[in-house]
Structures are given as C-alpha cells and as structure tokens.
Amino acid sequence: MGRRLATDLEGGFVDLVDAHGSMVLSIGARLGDPQAAEDVLQDTFLRAWRAFESGSTDPTDVDLRPWLATIALNLVRNERRRRGRKPVGELSDDTARAIGSDGPGPEQEAMESIGGSPLVAALRSLPDVQREAVVLRHVVGLSTGETAEAMDCPQGTLKSHLSRGLADLRTQLAHQQTEEP
Fold this sequence. Notes:
This protein is mainly alpha-helical. The chain has helices at residues 2-7, 9-31, 37-54, 64-83, 93-99, 106-114, 117-125, 128-139, 144-151, 155-179. It is elongated, with a radius of gyration of 17 Å.
C-alpha cells in the first residue's frame, strides 16, 4: 500500500482509509471520548494526508498500521490532557456499528460474555498507559511490536504494561463477581 500511496496519493489514500479506518475509529472510541471518535478518525487521516503530501513522511518508509495508531493515540492523549479527565460515556450505536463492521469483535464478545459494564468499568479504571496497551494489543489487534511502536516504548516495557493491566482487570472482575449476590 505504501508504494501505491507514493505513486497515486489520492487513489492509495482511499485504500488506506478503507484498510485502517475501523482501527483508528476504535482507538478513538475506546481510549478517548466515544462521541469524539469520528473527530479522531478525521484528524488522524488529515495529518497522514498532510504528511504524505508535504513529503515529510515517505509512505514506503513507514509501517502504516502502527504509524496511524500512533497518530490516533497522540490525538486521544492530547484531548485527554486538554479535558483533564478520563473517557466517559458509551459508544453511540452508529460508532459501535462502524467499529464492528463484520459481526462482533473480541471486545464486544468479551463484554457480552460477562455482562458488559463490569469490563468497561474495569478497563476505564486502569492507568492510562495500561489501558492504552490493553486496548491497542487485545482490542484493536496490533501485534506486540506494533503496539510498542505506537506507544513509543520498548517491547519489554509494553509487556510489563500489558501484564499489569491484564492482572488488574482479572482482579477487578473477580472481585466484582464475588460481590454479586
């Protein structure tokens, strides 16, 4: 896809958005304000277009998936800092449909299997870096290497964030199950 972008930016860009749009939308919805997920989607691809058009980024020199994830993640972080709070709210039906294009994704299946809101609450309670690692790796589906690249950290550090985040999720969910009547 990088070669196509280099030779035919307009045509290749349509393919880029088709191939990675749902990933970017999912990052915006799961890590940021769900109602602003489409803004993250648009801003991510606008920044990508500008980088390719200006020549500051050569599409043949970057791994597009983690590069786009990095842009989306940085936009979410900037918005989170600007607002000074963690994401709140649920996904709109339109956003949920856009993210889950071909049936339920792993997050939706997991949420349905345990009732939904306990997982969402547990995920939101994680520290930002752990939540980002878990969502990028296990919800969005980036590889360990791609997730480390998107988060700009060594793979060992990422694995530590993942391990702690998943352990905290398990503990919180187990605790919630023992509290239920």
